[in-house]
Each structure stands twice: as structure tokens, then as C-alpha cells.
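Structure record:
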Amino acid sequence: MPLLYPEASKEGEDKYESYKRSKYHDSEDRMKMYTTLMSAYGAKEGIDFKFGGPVANTLDAHRLIQHFQEKSGPECAEKIVNALYKQYFEEERHPSSEDTLLRAALEAEIDEKEARGFISDENEGLMEVKMLIREQASNGVDAVPYIVVEGKRRDFTLEGAKEVEEYIKILEQVIKESR
């Protein structure tokens, strides 16, 4: 999932209000700036961002992605992630409801019976995913994308959605410092 919310409640809370409170200190003006900016970014890429629906625990979504990445490969996992993103960001669906997970699995061409069996077994793959989340959290990762560009003199980290220009700036700096 785009965001790691493994500690959030399963029921979740209103996405708009949660983002406004946690990221923008309850500022309606700053939240409107964010939604306007993200809508513009999304429109350029054919994504129709919506800001309603719940933000909730994503552990089961991570479990689904990890399981089928190991079982069926990265292409399958990418299809699941893309389906989950569309449902969460454009359709305002719960990020880890059984229905959302099943729809994502079916869009990734996973057999329905197999998908339902995995989704209903809440313990399958749970410990492995929790371990991977703890490992990334101990490395300071709490959002995606999280990109580290290794330079000759120092490393550069880009976390979260960035403009192409920011990537170019970092790469140019790495080249400059490599000379």
C-alpha cells in the first residue's frame, strides 16, 4: 500500500479528517492546498484522486501482496498493488476489507477460491509481514516510495511523492559529487 498503517484500527477513520489532523494540524487551508496539488499531480497521470473513504490498518493488504509476490512473482504483486491503489485512492474503498482484497486478487488473475482461502486465514503470512514492517520501520521507512540514491560522498533519500525535478536534482548532485 502507499502508506504503512499497520498499527491503525481495522475499522479506520475518515481519510480527509485524518490527513487534515495528522499532516496539516487541522488546517483546512493547508488540506485544501494538498488536495488541489495531489489532484493536479494525479490528473497528469490519469489518476482521479479522491479524499474520502477510510484510512485504516493495511496489514492484510500487505499480507496479500507479500504472499502472492512470493508465490506468483513481482508482476502479480504489482497488479495487486495497482488494483489496491485504484480502489483506495480513486474509489474511496477500505484499504483492507475482504471485498477490496478479493477484487485486487481477482484483477491480478488469482484463482478466486485460492484468494478467498488466503484472505480468510488472517494468520497466514502474518508474522513474516510484521517482521518485514518492523525491519523497514527500524530503517526509518514509514512512507512510500522511499528511495535511497547512493552517492560517492553521501546518500540522498527521497520519501513520498516527489516531482520529477526533485529526482533530477538529486541525480545531478550525485554526478557532481562523483567527479
Remarks:
- The longest helix spans residues 28-44.
- Helices lie at 15-24, 28-44, 59-72, 74-90, 98-107, 112-120, 126-138, 164-178.
- The first strand starts at residue 13 and ends at 14.
- Strands lie at 13-14, 54-55, 146-150, 155-159.
